[in-house]
Amino acid sequence: LAVMQFYGWEVVDDGASFTGVLLEPSQRPQNRGVYTMYHGTSVASARLIIANGFKQSSSGMLGRGVYVSRDKKKAASYPKICSASNRVVLELRVCVGRVKRIDKDNHPMQHTWHTHGYDTAWVPPKCGMTSVKSGMEEDCVFDPKRVTVVAIANAPDTIRTELQELLAKTSKKSRRGDGDSADVCPLCKRKTQQGAQHIKQQCWKCGQNLCILMSKHVCPGRP
C-alpha cells in the first residue's frame, strides 16, 4: 500500500476571487463571480460606452439592465439593424453579484428579478425560450457599474485603432482617479481594498508566511 503525502494547497477558482474567468456558456455564473463577457453594439455607441460607461436598456426580454453574453458569436450578431461593417464587440469584465436563472417563457421573475434582490439574470443556452431564437446564452446586469470594458474584441479595421486608443485613454484616466486607494499584498500579489491588509498566517508544516488569498502553496523541498 503506497501512501502519498502532499504539503500545501492549490485552488481552482470559479471567478469569485480571480477576475476575468471565462466560463463556457452552459456553466452557471457563481454568485459574486467576476467573468469575461461580451457586448455587441454599433461604432457610434461603442465610442460613447468606452468614454462614459454603460447605461441601462429601458426594456428588453429580461427588463432593464445591460445585456451581455459569454458567447462572443451572439454578441457579434448585434445590433440586428446594423451591417457587419458597423458592428463592434466589446470585451467586458462583469461582476455578476447575485444571479437568478431564467430558463422558461413567462418565468415569474423574468422582468422582476432585481426587485427580489438579484443583480444579474442568466438565460442558459438552448433552454427553449421562444424569445431567444438563437438559443445562445444571455445575461442582463441591472447596475451598469458592474460592467467594465477591458478590450475591443472585434471591430472594423478602419475603426479598431481609434477605439483601442480611446479605451487606453479612458482606462488611464480611471486608474489615475483611483489614486492610492489600492495597495498590493506582498504575498498573494493581489490588490487590497482601500488599503485594508489581507489576513496572513504561517503554514503549519514549513512555517512560511502565507496570505489566505494565495491560490497555491507548496512547502519548500516538497514536490
Strand order of the largest sheet: 3-7-6-5
Q: Report the radius of gyration as a whole number of Å.
A: 21 Å
Strand fraction band? 15-25%
Mean pLDDT: 84
Q: Assign the CATH architecture of the largest domain.
A: Alpha-Beta Complex
CATH fold topology of the largest domain: Phosphoenolpyruvate Carboxykinase, domain 3
Largest sheet: 4 strands, mixed
Shape: globular
| Helical percentage | 10-25%
Give the beta-strand count.
11
Order of helices and strands: EEHEHEEEEEHEEE
Q: Which spans of ≥5 residues are poorly predicted at pLDDT below 50? A: 12-20
Question: Any idea of the CATH class of the largest domain?
Answer: Alpha Beta
**How many domain units?**
2
| Structural class category | alpha+beta
Alpha carbon gap, first and last residue: 20 Å
What is the tally of helical segments? 3
Describe the overall structure.
This protein is of the alpha+beta class and 223 residues long. The protein is 17% helix and 23% strand. The strands form 4 sheets. A 4-stranded mixed sheet has the order 3-7-6-5, with no helix packed on it. α1 packs parallel to α3. About 4% of the residues have low confidence.
